[in-house]
Design brief:
Number of domains: 1
Number of helices: 11
Helix content: over 70%
Largest sheet: none
Number of strands: 0
Keywords: Membrane, Transmembrane, Transmembrane helix
Radius of gyration: 26 Å
Distance between the termini: 28 Å
Structural class: mainly alpha
Strand content: under 5%
Order of helices and strands: HHHHHHHHHHH
Shape: elongated
Organism: Cladocopium goreaui
Protein name: CCHC-type domain-containing protein
């Protein structure tokens, strides 16, 4: 408590404190995403290389998603539950709810002698001197921390830019296909722009849109269940919510490809990728924009 008060007081008059929020579980979660995405897209590229038809690819891909996302569902349900708990605690931040050692032992030492000073009284007095009142400090702390939550972690408690970093293997793998098409002896050399633009569309659009549905489901069913089998069923429920969206994304890409067949490959890829990137940006950031707009109108 005192550290937070000192941090807020240390900023210059009228300046905004630079508060970085990084949940500890976020690190292992990002590493898990990197490994899962790398494995997943290596499987996809292997199917492309062996000339599998699109229907078989979609079936195998959905099975791979089921296998890879089950442990991820368990991890991120726990992650969202812990972050939501922290968010709720900060939202109900009160100086009166804090505890100090001297109060917990009844203001006496182990030998039974009374303690001359109370830590709570000292800290409360410092906070009142710095902020005018403890209510002003509480309002300032809540405003800063909750605003930092929204700005840095976003609606899904997982920032979009960090998702792009964690899933960069998608771009690497598809970029490898692009470079392969640039070879002078490649029979489809003129299609390399199609692969490059499609790589951007998958990396920045199609996959993040599916991930948004996954994160939303994890957050919705994040509360732990008393029975371990019910908890496992919740993990499966998260996947069952996401799989249709993932399959629809595949079908949408295929439908756009067939509809735009008369167009040049690079132009059809540009239209398809732009649509998916725009959708991903809206899905990840739209609710936060609406919340900020409502907050501004409320003021």
């Amino acid at each position: 408590m005192f550290e937070l008060a000192a941090f807020l007081k240390s900023r210059g008059e009228g300046s905004k404190a630079s508060l970085q929020i990084r949940p500890t579980v976020l690190g292992p979660g990002v590493l898990a995403i990197v490994l899962s995405v790398s494995t997943f897209f290596i499987v996809i590229v292997a199917m492309f290389s062996y000339g599998w038809n699109r229907l078989d690819m979609m079936i195998v891909t959905c099975m791979a998603v089921l296998v890879l996302t089950y442990p991820a569902a368990a991890v991120f349900r726990d992650y969202f539950h812990s972050v939501q708990t922290l968010h709720d605690q900060l939202q109900n931040f009160r100086l009166a709810n804090t505890k100090c050692y001297c109060c917990s032992v009844g203001h006496v030492t182990e030998s039974g002698q009374p303690l001359p000073l109370c830590d709570r009284q000292i800290l409360t007095k410092c906070i009142e001197i710095w902020f005018g009142s403890h209510q002003s400090f509480e309002d300032d702390a809540r405003s800063l921390v909750l605003e930092s939550f929204a700005d840095q972690l976003g609606r899904h408690y997982f920032p979009y830019w960090l998702w792009l970093v964690a899933t960069s293997p998608i771009f690497w793998v598809l970029l490898d296909i692009t470079v392969d098409h640039i070879r002078l002896d490649h029979k489809e050399r003129d299609r390399w722009p199609y692969w490059f633009i499609s790589a951007l569309g998958w990396w920045m659009g199609a996959v993040p849109s599916c991930a948004a549905a996954f994160f939303y489901s994890c957050k919705l069913f994040s509360a732990p269940r008393a029975n371990k089998w019910n908890d496992r069923l919740m993990n499966l429920l998260v996947i069952l919510v996401m799989l249709p969206i993932f399959a629809c994304t595949f079908l949408m890409i295929e439908a756009l490809f067939q509809w735009m067949m008369p167009l040049s490959p690079w132009l059809s890829a540009t239209i398809s990728s732009s649509s998916h990137i725009a959708l991903a940006i809206i899905v990840w950031n739209g609710p936060a924009w609406i919340a900020k707009l409502r907050h501004g109108r409320a003021k």
